[in-house]
Design brief:
Layout: E1 13-19, E2 22-30, E3 55-56, E4 63-64, E5 71-76, E6 79-83, H1 85-91, E7 98-106, E8 115-123, H2 128-141, E9 143-151, E10 154-163, E11 166-172, H3 193-205, H4 219-232, H5 252-266, H6 270-278
Parallel strand pairs: 1-7
Antiparallel strand pairs: 1-2, 2-8, 3-4, 5-6, 7-9, 8-11, 9-10, 10-11
Helix pairs in contact: 3-5
Length: about 300
C-alpha cells in the first residue's frame, strides 16, 4: 500500500478527478527518487567556482542579458515572429486543476509507448472515501481512466490507474507525438521451427511469474558512488578494466544451444524441477527449508 509520509513526501500540486458528478480531490506527488542518481557540476578549473549559464547572440557574438531576451517562433529558415510576454501568456492553456475523465478503457489497451511520466496521487483531506472508491472500482473492472488535465500552461493527456492501495496518474503522449512503428525498418526473415523451439526454451529457462524491481540495482551508479567516496578521501581512482571481448557466434542455432547450456549451469530450469517433483524424484538442488510463519496477534 502506498504511504505518504508528511516529513518525506511533499505534494507538488492539488487537483480534482472528475467523472460524471463524482469529484475526487487529490494531491500530486513525484514518483522520482532524487537521491538515486549522481550528478556533477561544472566548475572553474582555476578556483573550483560554480559556473552559471550565459547566452551569446549568434549574429554579433554579444553576451545577452536576460532583460534583452525575447521569444520568437521560426516560421521559415532564419525568420522569426516575436511574441510579447502578454501574447505568450494568452497562448497558454488556462489551468483548472481538474482531471476531466473522458472514458474508461481496459488497461492493456494503452500501449506503454505512450507513457511520458507518472505522478502518485494521494487523497486530499476529506476525499479519502471517494479516492478509495475510485481505486477499488478501477481495480475490479480492470480498466483505467483516460482524460485531460491542464497545468503549467499546457493541456495534458493523462491516465489514472490503480496501484497497490492507491492511484497513480500517468502523463501520456498524444498520438501525433508518437512515431508509428511502421517507420522502423525491420526487413523480412523466415523463422525456422527448430530455432523458435530453442528460443522459447531459453525464455522459459529464465522465466519468472512476477517482476521484482528491488532485485535490480544500477551497478554503474553504485560503482560511481564508490569511486567518488574514494576521491573524497583523497585516494586516486582509475578506470575499470575493459571487459574481454567474447568470441562471436555466427550460427544462430549454436548461439541458442550455448545460451541454454550456460543457463542450465547457472540454475536448473524450474520446469525440470517441477517435473522431477511430480515423478517423485529429488530436484537437482536441495530446496531451502521453509521458515515457520509467525502468528500475528
Amino acid at each position: 500500500m502506498i504511504l505518504f509520509d508528511a516529513m518525506s513526501a511533499r505534494a507538488l500540486s492539488s487537483a480534482t478527478i472528475s467523472f460524471g458528478l463524482v469529484s475526487v480531490p487529490v494531491q500530486l506527488f513525484t514518483t522520482n527518487q532524487s537521491s538515486a542518481s549522481v550528478s556533477f557540476h561544472l566548475l572553474h578549473k582555476k578556483d573550483h567556482g560554480r559556473l552559471k549559464q550565459q547566452y551569446v547572440c549568434q549574429k554579433d557574438g554579444e553576451l545577452v542579458p536576460r532583460d534583452d531576451m525575447v521569444k520568437g517562433y521560426e516560421f521559415a529558415k532564419d525568420q522569426y515572429v516575436v511574441f510579447t510576454p502578454e501574447e505568450l501568456k494568452a497562448l497558454e492553456e488556462t489551468p483548472n486543476e481538474t482531471v476531466e475523465i473522458r472514458e474508461f478503457v481496459p488497461g492493456a489497451q494503452v500501449e506503454r509507448i505512450y507513457l511520458e511520466k507518472a505522478y502518485y496521487l494521494g487523497p486530499s483531506k476529506g476525499g479519502e472515501r471517494a479516492y478509495h472508491l475510485l481505486a477499488e472500482a478501477l481495480r475490479q473492472t480492470g480498466r483505467v481512466a483516460v482524460g485531460k488535465y491542464a497545468a503549467r500552461g499546457r493541456q495534458y493527456l493523462v491516465m489514472v490507474r490503480p496501484i497497490d492501495g492507491g492511484l497513480v496518474m500517468e502523463q501520456l503522449r498524444y498520438a501525433q507525438e508518437v512515431k508509428p512503428f511502421s517507420e522502423v525498418p525491420v526487413g523480412e526473415a523466415n523463422v525456422k521451427a527448430p530455432e523458435l523451439k530453442l528460443a522459447v526454451q531459453l525464455i522459459e529457462q529464465a522465466a519468472t511469474d512476477t517482476f521484482t524491481p528491488q532485485a535490480y540495482e544500477d551497478e554503474a551508479q553504485n560503482r560511481v558512488r564508490e569511486q567518488i567516496a574514494k576521491k573524497v578521501e583523497g585516494q586516486e581512482i582509475s578506470a575499470a578494466p575493459a571487459p574481454q571481448p567474447q568470441a562471436k557466434i555466427i550460427d544462430l542455432m549454436d548461439a541458442l544451444k550455448q545460451s541454454l547450456a550456460q543457463g542450465a549451469e547457472r540454475k536448473p530450469p524450474k520446469r525440470a524441477e517441477k517435473v522431477a517433483a511430480e515423478d517423485g524424484e529429488a530436484p537437482a538442488t536441495a530446496a531451502k527449508p521453509k521458515k515457520k510463519a509467525r502468528k500475528v496477534s
